[in-house]
Amino acid sequence: MNKLSLIGQAVALSIAACGISYAADSAAQSKVQIAEPFAAHVLVSGLDAPWDMVWAPDGYLWVTERKGATIDRIDPKSGKKQVLVKIADVKIGPQHEGVLGLALSPDFLKSDSKNYVYAAYTYMNGDSERAKIVRFEYDPKAHTLGNQQDVLAGIPAGSDHNGGRLRFGPDGKLYYTIGEQGHNQGKHVCEPIEAQRLPTSAELEKKDYSAYVGKVLRLNSDGSIPDDNPVIEGVKSHLFTYGHRNPQGLVFVGDTLYSSEQGPSSDDELNILQAGGNYGWPHVAGYRDDQAYVYANYSKAKDCESVKYDPNHIPDGVPVQKETDWNAPNFKPPVKTFFTVPQGYTYSDASCGDSFYMCWPTIAPSSVAYYPKDGVIKSFRNSLLITSLKNGAIYRVLLNDDTKNVQGDVAKEFHTTNRYRMAVVSPDTRKIYVATDNFNGAMDESNKPTQNLANPGSIIVFEYTGK
């Protein structure tokens, strides 16, 4: 495999696109001429856990730094970074806490616009951790964000699986993803999963949003509940969909809302979100097919604290339930999984050592973007681009011509020894910008786990150099 050397940046990338290896150099931009050539370079490094990234109407990349607690404006040509605001009351944790989602108002930088910018982050409310969605006003002359106002506060949050993606839909509503807080696993193993629990009218009257775990919200830009939100079991709330594990990717393609969601040891999902839909977690992972996954409810085990947690080899005394033992009339299966494996799959690979979980059949999808039908890169046209934290790659999923479902196989693009957190497509469709995580494991060029990331806390640009 050819290697991409980035001179002056002290970094190295190995890249495969469309099944072909290629090389480039940040100084000389040397190329290997192939059917669809690419070059790559690091735009900026030293970011403190970049999390969300949007292409703003001013032609700049706007980025949240999860651990840095900032919103930045980055020049997509020079990589020069300008901090627009540092948020004061952010609860920062090692992996899932901090400044997360970012969304610009639909009329941003248009005539007479108030230039509102929305962000989501975790904070402490007394002894309890919560998340909130806030609104800033942007000063385009000073390039600063100010006049912070709460839009919706008291959202469930914790040290694991906060979701956090924030997007405006074509309907002008805000959509926000919330994970199930990592319950029933790891250090939260004895806490029950509540992704199926629905809010009551009494809770809503008290602004008690504790039932919002494992949900996708839909709200007006002032934080109120839209009149046309779904009524679920007699209650209208901010809930748009429920039964989610850790949905982190959101993208509208026309009026179809796609979401990527992290599964357990298998069955990461690509979903189409429909109002009032139930996406099955924790009763179902992926398809309702009784393949490999069973719901092991550790929180119901006798003496849970003394039970050894293993997600794939369930100890005696832990209640289990097959996927087909559960059903709901509004269950929505995914349109694609990454990956479904058969019953009896061992999940064990001695060569992975202490990083055994890295070798499970999952990709840890972290975002999803749309590559348009009229894009320059022919093989990418009308595709969803799903970033992988675990495999340091973009998984490309072709859509049907009407963009309302998937078509064909999945292609793996741009593999490097990194954790890909977020991707955006440039307006000219020639470049794909990828933000990388700062730490934790990834698969290297030999598909072996490593903690040595090539380009932590960076934005990498993959540029199409063909005609």
From TrEMBL:
Limits of the Glucose/Sorbosone dehydrogenase domain:
47-292, 354-442
Record's SUPFAM superfamilies? Answer: Soluble quinoprotein glucose dehydrogenase
Q: Quick one: signal sequence residues?
A: 1-23
Q: Which InterPro entries match?
A: 6-blade_b-propeller_TolB-like, Glc/Sorbosone_DH, Quinoprot_gluc/sorb_DH_b-prop, SndH-like
Q: Does the keyword Lipid biosynthesis apply?
A: no
Query: What keywords appear on the UniProt entry?
Result: Signal
Output the NCBIfam families linked to this UniProt entry: non_repeat_PQQ (TIGR03606)
Instruction: Report what the protein is called.
Output: PQQ-dependent sugar dehydrogenase
